[in-house]
Specification:
six-stranded mixed β-sheet, 37% strand, 2 helices, alpha+beta, Immunoglobulin-like
Amino acid sequence: MNRNPSPPSGIDSTRRKLLAAGAGLGACVLVRPAFALPGDLASAINAFTGGAAVRTGKVTLDVATLVDNGNTVPITVTVDSPMTATDHVVALAVFNERNPQREVARFSLGPRAGKAAVSTRIRLATSQKLAAVAQLSDGTFWSHTVDVVVTLAACIEGEG
């Protein structure tokens, strides 16, 4: 009685290749968000603005263009606005190009804020473009973008 299994037949070999390919494809789908495409930045901004046109100006995104450590990157966003009842910033949002989550932060403001400025620290997975977008009380959107080079990237396992 021979207990040695016979070599894989053509069907078994094809089946194993198909399973291996499926596992590889599954791994690509799981890893992909950390290496998202630059075009996704525009989609995230469009979701914030509801598709409205975004103009350049009025917003200043203050961030170092060369960052030593992506784990804690200080940013400040200011908007040229009088912050009166009739003319003020309604919302500010900061977006990134390559982190797993495109929208880094969102702030709601009003005339009682007194000054259209926010500061925080963010994580950057790698070198990328950042965009700050402000919605004014007249319904217009204004932005400023900055390219940031990160020499030591932040861990990209969790959310950016």
